């Protein structure tokens, strides 16, 4: 029996092979779909303009707030930017209750978020909070005063959004297991601001931030160096990336105003939807089942092969198919455990192994990291997380091999996205020795063993990058990225607003001056009034 287990495991593992050729085919298609997205709307890679036209240099200063709705958790923080590439961060985090992810109305979710902000302010910024409440009470005119206790807040909202201003954007679709239909098409900043205002909090939603853009900004602030960061990438619950694109390449029309002087704009790729049409992406039976049984079949197809929310489920489906294979004995045998006693492997009735989403991808990290001959920590986790009692070493080895194959394919697919953008940017060619900097965030890059190494291995195989190119690509962690990044974008937004007011006053002055000048023409000149 163990032999058929080994063979059948190999057969499954082989299905997750993603060769160097596959990587290059993937890159060619990724570049094609990226450029299609720069030209028109409605493509699989959305290439959403973010209105952010520059990256910070580390001298930015001030106290800002940031919140992050990323998928699994809601984070609230305040960030003090010191202006010397360093910052201080006060932070709290709460898991999003599952029922709110599929709430009947968006009010339930956004009301919950506003409550968390209130709790954070009361806990960490009582002085601001109290001062604001005092002011509101004493102020005769509720509106129209400038409140120095007002926090400018960057709202990191990591779902596809059609942005039409720095703090305006409507939700295109939910991803990552969220499904609250009435929010689709609405301005998510307004949804949050309304709930904040109901609680009378001293907070202004100043900027709408995608976590990828936040990661890019944070990385650029903390490591300004000579080379500005090119990509902000997330490998967490979901996966997505933002990068700096030349405005000349952005051929579709961009609504609203933005600063054109830099010649660049940060683009939110929404690469989770790369190749929804399955031109080049791998498709095992397990991928197909996962997609069919998901809340959004046919979309986020790339994400469903790469990110934390889905990898565990792919592993689960593959392991279950082994378990159900009559020729294979997995988690069924009689094994001798370490003290020599015989025990029968069995699986608890309520094991996550038989429930959709029942296997968290963090278990993959445990599996891959366990290098002991007995695989004892993995077997212990199989017991505690999946209620698989007394699994044999062979069982655990099969599980580990499958987890490794799924994780490796995810890393190599990640390299397709990153490598394509590096090629698109032309930065490896522009200079001969500068580094191309990438900021990455999310539990997968942070905790999955050797995830970055596996990305590098695939980058080396990409035509147009090669081993020399891969050496010049630096993937650095930008943890806390979304907090600091969102704060930086709130700062940029507040600056933009001030500039708009100053510009407006200047325009009014100018118009008045022209009128006066027109009314009193100087000698020898005729006035032209427009
Ligand atoms: P978010 O995407 O909500 O900002 P994270 O970046 O922490 O949050 O990602 C959470 C996702 O990462 C979950 O899907 C979880 O299953 C997965 N995850 C958490 N820890 C690990 C780990 N050690 N190895 C692999 N995946 C993990
Ligand atoms: Mg995140």
Automatic annotation (TrEMBL):
Coiled coil: none annotated. Keywords: ATP-binding, Glycolysis, Kinase, Nucleotide-binding, Transferase. Its EC number is 2.7.1.-. InterPro entries: ATPase_NBD, Hexokinase, Hexokinase_BS, Hexokinase_C, Hexokinase_N. Residues 9-221 form the Hexokinase N-terminal domain. Residues 231-492 form the Hexokinase C-terminal domain. Signal peptide: none annotated. PROSITE patterns: HEXOKINASE_1, HEXOKINASE_2. Pathway: Carbohydrate degradation; glycolysis; D-glyceraldehyde 3-phosphate and glycerone phosphate from D-glucose: step 1/4. One of its GO terms (molecular function) is fructokinase activity. The keyword Transferase applies. GO terms for biological process: glucose metabolic process; glycolytic process; intracellular glucose homeostasis. GO terms for cellular component: cytosol; mitochondrion. Belongs to the hexokinase family. This is Phosphotransferase.
